[in-house]
Design a protein that fits this description.
Layout lengths: L1 E9 L1 H12 L6 E5 L2 E7 L17 E9 L4 H8 L3 E3 L2 E5 L10 E5 L11 H11 L7 E5 L5 H8 L4 E6 L2 H13 L6 E4 L10 E7 L2 H14 E13 L3 H9 L3 E9 L2 E8 L3
Parallel strand pairs: 6-7, 8-9, 8-11, 9-10, 11-12
Antiparallel strand pairs: 1-3, 1-4, 2-3, 5-6, 12-14, 13-14
Length: about 270
């Protein structure tokens, strides 16, 4: 069983985005934007671990209820509401929807309880930046892969080797399934706790995760990426960019560019020294 925290937010924009950033620090498995605000899903056993913060300090009004949802109903709920999305030459669609023949890359996903349907601003920002990189024959590491969108896109763009890691077992299974559905079963999916990256192996590292986890991975990325390698990060607010730029600079990452969308941001770094 899963529990759904149904948040009614006034106004929903930008309240829903702010709430998502706050709740991403808690043991929720996935999120869904709704016309009323935001739904947050977690395993029923995790409810006792969730302590919601004081929302009175935010500039929006909020109320919520908790309901139980059998796991097998998740795909039915998602399929009823999912709309395909196009990001540049990338078209992200569900298995029951037709690909877009006018797009260069079609990514087919079934998210189950994993984060990464392509609709969130951070996923779109990462897809946009990734499309402008030459990843042909390159080695890629996708940290916090979720549904596997970025790992799959990397492989479709010609990457030679792709490692994808996540902390959630459901995400690992989901990423493997989505990779197979995209006829690219060469992606190596690993549990983050068991994965030890090789030194200076990767040409490109992708990380769409929250700010604190990004900081945790900064020294690991510094050891794992090649000289002049590309690091793309997202999962944080535009207001956090200066802090993250300074932090990653201490590990030898030089700023290449920053892109933003609706208060969210993504940063591209280039590794300058060991």
């Amino acid at each position: 069983m899963y529990s759904c925290y149904c948040f009614n937010i006034t106004p929903p924009d930008p309240g829903s985005e702010i709430l998502l950033a706050v709740l991403s620090e808690l043991p929720f498995d996935t999120f869904e934007f709704t016309p009323e605000g935001l739904n947050a899903y977690c395993k029923e056993a995790a409810v006792s671990e969730i302590v919601l913060p004081d929302f009175s300090k935010y500039d929006f009004k909020l109320s919520y209820s908790i309901t139980s949802i059998p796991f097998q109903n998740w795909n039915e709920t998602w399929e009823a509401a999912y709309e395909p999305i196009q990001v540049g030459q990338v078209y992200i669609h569900a298995a029951f929807q037709k690909p877009n023949v006018n797009c260069k890359y079609n990514v087919c996903i079934t998210p189950k309880m994993s984060f990464g349907t392509g609709h969130h601003f951070t996923t779109r920002l990462m897809c946009t930046m990734l499309q402008h990189l030459d990843v042909n024959t390159r080695h890629i590491w996708d940290i916090g892969t979720g549904t596997g969108i970025l790992a799959i896109l990397s492989k479709l763009m010609g990457a030679q080797h792709v490692d994808a890691t996540d902390t959630e077992l459901w995400a690992l299974d989901n990423a493997r399934e989505n990779a197979i559905n995209n006829f690219t079963n060469e992606i190596q999916v690993h549990a983050a706790s068991e994965f030890i990256p090789q030194n200076h192996m990767y040409d490109v590292i992708l990380a769409n995760i929250n700010k604190n986890v990004l900081k945790y991975y900064a020294p690991i990325c510094a050891k794992s990426i090649k000289h002049q390698g590309q690091l793309l990060i997202s999962g944080f607010f535009e207001t956090d960019t200066d802090e993250l730029i300074r932090y990653f600079k201490t590990y030898g990452f030089d700023l290449a560019q920053v892109q933003t969308e609706s208060e969210w941001a993504a940063i591209q770094f280039i590794k300058s020294f060991s």
